[in-house]
Amino acid sequence: MKEADYYESTNGVVVMVEPYSQQEQIQQIVYRILDANLDRTREGLRIIEEWCRFGLNNAQLAGECKYLRQELAKWHTAEIRAARDTVGDIGTDLSHPQEEQRASIKSLLQANFCRVQEALRVLEEYGKLYSPNMGKAFKQMRYRVYTLESSLMGYQRHQLLWRSHLYLVTSPSDSLFATVESALKGGLTLVQYRDKNSDDTVRLEQATRLRQLCHAYGALLIMNDRVDLALAVDADGVHLGQQDMPIALARQLLGPQRIIGRSTTNSEEMHRAINEGADYIGVGPIYETPTKAGKAAAGLEYVRYAAQNSPIPWFAIGGIDANNINDVIDAGAERVAVVRSLMQAEQPTLVTQYLLSQLNRVRPQPEIVQN
């Protein structure tokens, strides 16, 4: 005969409770695991949903989060909830220093996507002990979350690309990181790491640091030329020259969520890049520049053409600085890319703010709709 447990109820009456059998104990443990991971998944999805709703104003992404939460709720039965034992859960006191702070919205979202995906994998496996259909349901849900992550991260990157009107292309410098950070403090949101001559070990180290720096300020980091290095450092995309790999191959390697840009010097190259699926193009060089030694300037006429014919974001580039930016703007440019005017500036923050002020001056401000 099993030994019974005795408990004193709140009114002082002692009651006898028959202990669970071993099978029932295992069942209760499984229920507790399911309950904890259902909670974890729903909470993580809600955090992601709030950013889709309020941060991105994207009804489609927010709606997908809501749909997934509602599907989870169908499995979160009273039977599973009844097994919850918060007081006796040793995991409530476990923590990690990385959970105490988030460096950026991106890191917050990635942490919660990881949380949701891990919890769904637990639900998929332990759910097989609860219901024949539970494992299948959470397997499919896990794949939907992978798709949601790609869509959300890609949408965020492309939205920020459209909002970016000043683009810093770096050049080798002893003050590389200090210069970039100063520009980021001035409001810069788009950086391309460009170094044609350093060893890959140096490029990897510098690009990794720049990616961390850019993401801490909510900016994008694009790698020049090298798709492999873009993947290695988790950059936001790659910029390809006319002699670099085809855009279709780069897209196959990078996926739809990352950004691909292409340099163009004339209207033919511009239309080819657009048709091949570039997310943005460089238009130039507008003026002769040592960065593109020996390459004839495309001039302001190409700027005028791009302003009338490019349906994707484009950046006028080549010899643009504080002295001539308004000529480029008057020709139709809303976005410019610069190298020397920031990399060689004594006060990159102030120069960034000035360039942005000129670019912001020509853009119509969105109308505020009163609710």
List key phrases describing it.
single chain, 371 residues, alpha/beta, TIM Barrel, 2 domains, 8-stranded parallel β-barrel, two-stranded antiparallel ribbon, 52% helix
Descriptive account of the structure:
The protein has two domains: 21-88 and 99-158; 164-362, Alpha-Beta Barrel (TIM Barrel). The chain has helices at 22-55, 59-75, 78-81, 105-127, 134-163, 176-185, 200-216, 227-232, 247-254, 267-275, 300-309, 325-330, 340-343, 348-362, and strands at 5-8, 14-17, 166-169, 190-193, 220-224, 237-240, 259-264, 280-283, 314-317, 336-338. It starts with a strand and ends in a 9-residue tail after the last helix. Helix 1 (22-55) packs antiparallel against helix 2, helix 2 runs antiparallel to helix 5 (134-163) and helix 6 packs across helix 14. The protein has 371 residues and is an alpha/beta fold.
Element layout with pairings:
Elements lengths: L4 E4 L5 E4 L4 H34 L3 H17 L2 H4 L23 H23 L6 H30 L2 E4 L6 H10 L4 E4 L6 H17 L3 E5 L2 H6 L4 E4 L6 H8 L4 E6 L2 H9 L4 E4 L16 H10 L4 E4 L7 H6 L5 E3 L1 H4 L4 H15 L9
Parallel strand pairs: 3-4, 3-10, 4-5, 5-6, 6-7, 7-8, 8-9, 9-10
Antiparallel strand pairs: 1-2
Helix pairs in contact: 1-2, 1-4, 2-5, 4-5, 6-7, 6-14
